[in-house]
Design a protein that fits this description.
Blueprint lengths: L4 H4 L6 E7 L18 E6 L10 E4 L8 H10 L1 H4 L5 E5 L3 E3 L3 H9 L4 E4 L7 H10 L5 H14 L1 H4 L8 E5 L2 H16 L8 H8 L4 E3 L9 E3 L22 H14 L3 H4 L16
Helix pairs in contact: 2-8, 5-6, 8-9
Length: 284
């Protein structure tokens, strides 16, 4: 039987589904399954006008006022901090629509695991993910290349590991998960805001045991992934905007030059690294 949001707000258990919308990035997704579930659905937001039939809205101040994306990442990554009263959490990106009652998913997917998330269904390795982030202009190329250089120098094995898809994250409240989350968040602050580049590094560094879901990222028996426009995404939402940076020449350095030489990536077997203007290209 469907229940009103007010009735569902009084449901108390140890499990929760949550998401975050900071900076008027998208509209809250419709989650019809929430009307039938005993599991609470929470949406953190800084938008005082936001309303939803499906989500319990919690107003928050952005942790980093000038960086709404990293503010949302903080909420996404730190489940133990932002939802301390829950023993089990399921993060879903706003574009993920659940098709199955999450109460059942906690039983069948999380089970006794500490951390469960899907593998990426159309990119193979973390190195491929670096390529995609650069090619699609999803973040500042300088930060992305700096992160790649850091990993190649200190944790090269991470780059050849299967890339994970962080739009769906099952976690259990415990010290191991908390340490993993802290390490992951540090990487997002230090390097790219694209958390799929660093989640594998954090897993490896903290030695946390995890389980990988083998599902198609676009659609499975448990979810569907909606188009950005259907989610109400703003123009160019989520992409790195070079116009917000002072030096226009940097775009030519790191984006246009990358597009010219990206065809040699297969030969190199790694993302193309661009040197500054006064240095030769370093492909080593």
């Amino acid at each position: 039987m469907n229940r009103s949001r007010a009735e569902r707000s009084h449901v108390t258990n140890s499990r929760v589904v949550y998401t975050a919308l900071i900076g008027s990035y998208e509209r809250p997704s419709e989650q019809p399954i929430a009307l039938e579930s005993s599991t609470k659905f929470i949406c953190f937001t800084d938008d005082e006008t936001l309303q939803s039939e499906y989500w319990n809205i919690i107003l928050v101040k952005p942790r980093y006022p000038s960086d709404p994306i990293r503010s949302a990442r903080y909420l996404k990554i730190h489940s133990n901090v932002v939802l301390p009263e829950y023993d089990q959490t399921l993060w879903i990106d706003n574009r993920v629509i659940l098709l199955v009652d999450p109460t059942a998913l906690f039983e069948t997917v999380l089970g006794e695991n500490l951390l469960v998330l899907p593998g990426h269904s159309f990119r193979e390795t973390v190195k491929d993910e670096f390529d995609a982030v650069l090619d699609q202009r999803l973040d500042d190329p300088r930060r992305v290349r700096r992160q790649f250089d850091d990993y190649i120098a200190n944790s090269p094995e991470v780059l050849n590991e299967p890339v994970l898809w962080t739009a769906i994250l099952f976690r259990r409240k415990c010290e191991q998960v908390a340490r993993f989350e802290s390490c992951w968040h540090e990487q997002v602050l230090l390097h790219s805001r694209r958390d799929q580049l660093s989640v594998g590094y954090a897993i490896t560094t903290e030695g946390i045991t995890h389980s990988t879901l083998q599902i198609d990222n676009h659609a499975s028996n448990m979810h569907t992934w909606v188009d950005a426009k259907l989610a109400g995404r703003v123009e160019n939402g989520g992409r790195w905007n070079a116009s917000t940076y002072r030096a226009g020449s940097m775009l030519a350095d790191y984006t246009n030059r990358y597009r010219v030489i990206r065809g040699i990536r297969k030969i190199l077997g790694r993302p193309v690294r661009l040197a500054s203007r006064d240095r030769k290209l370093d492909n080593g």
